Amino acid sequence: MAGIYIHIPFCKKRCTYCDFYTEVAPKLIPTLVDNIIKELEIRRDYLQNEPIHTIYFGGGTPSILKIDQFSKIFDVIYSTYPVDKDAEVTFEANPDDLTVEFFNSIHSLPFNRISIGIQSFNDEDLKRVNRRHSAKQAIEAVKNSQNAGFNNISIDLIYGLPFQTLADWEQQLNTALDLNIQHISAYGLTYEEGTALWKQREKGRVKSIDDDIMNEMYLLLVKKTKEKGFEAYEISNFATQGFRSRHNSSYWKQSAYLGIGPSAHSFDLKSRQWNVASITKYIDAIEHNTTLFEREELTLFDRYNDYVMVSLRTLEGIDLAFLEQTFGQELKNYCYENIKSFIDTNKVIFTNNRLCLTDEGIMISNQILIQLMQV
Ligand SMILES: C[S@@+](CC[C@H](N)C(=O)[O-])C[C@H]1O[C@@H](n2cnc3c(N)ncnc32)[C@H](O)[C@@H]1O
Ligand code: SF4
Predict the structure, then answer these.
(1) Which of 157, 236, 161 has its CA nearest to residue 197?
(2) What pTM, to 2 d.p., does this model score?
(3) pLDDT for the residue 375
(4) Residue pLDDT, tens place only, 71-97
(5) What architecture is domain 2-251?
(6) Does domain 300-372 have CATH number 2.60.40?
């Protein structure tokens, strides 16, 4: 079981909070697509012919691509890799791209899931962080996706945006939960060093929301999604029955994946590698057949840390049987001994040989993780 991730590193403009690698360089799109196709061919053996269960176009803004550009990429994927016939095939989209015309143009492509970056349904919030769409466009984007036949729709929201109150956040959730969608990814705003938003905070123009309010916003998110039948299957991810993101879940379950495009990461169970985060350097490396990625062999401790870090955030938690089987008894005991005090204080529940965070534990998940890491 494996996945393919394709990074489309273009944005029409940059949001103030975002530090993902993307550029505003539309002229480079056609050349980049050609080189993505070449990379898919060059790295055909990376996943050793494992069946592909998920394909994910992330960004940046994959919805910036034209139908023939998507088609060319799919042609190579389907002719080169053993893609499962019921593979989950997702693309991330910005709301203003999701017009009726756009859906008419892509209806023959194999996409069966869409992840729409909405962030907020409040026009003031959207303007402040330099989003390029309005609240109305966001709602229309969801409706257009549904009318086009998509029945596996996810939206991204951010809570704790500058000046947002708990009541504002509740309104966002009410709007989201009335849209008949299947999945929500909701992230607490982080101020990433070097971003425009981070600079605004340095200058005192915006300030971070208090931790207590952020925690209340999170608890409200958990409560309201639960009332609507969503399961909090990971700290930031909520799905109705049968609609968990299979692509993200496979990252959390340590499956292999191939990341294509500038800055994309790959994992083959033994090592990680990450492509150069520059469109021009990436194109140059592919065209001149020079090294396009850095690579790190993973030690037992690295793999243990990765597993603990991601699984603690999931509903299923840390599986001690898996831990022992994969990393040995010593590391399993280390993990259990170091988490014991959190079980005693009800931050973690120990059940069915698994360690799962409680709502209180989620609030201090980083603190718990630090205790479990092997450095
Ligand atoms: C890289 S973006 C891709 C989605 C798409 N480009 C969009 O913006 O609509 C993935 C998601 O990460 C989240 N995100 C990015 N930067 C963040 C930050 N600093 N704090 C919280 N969430 C963030 C946003 O919800 C965003 O939709
Ligand atoms: S949040 Fe999305 S649209 Fe905004 S800059 Fe980041 S990748 Fe681009």
Answers:
(1) 161
(2) 0.96
(3) 77
(4) 999 999 999 999 999 999 999 999 999
(5) Alpha-Beta Barrel (3.20)
(6) no
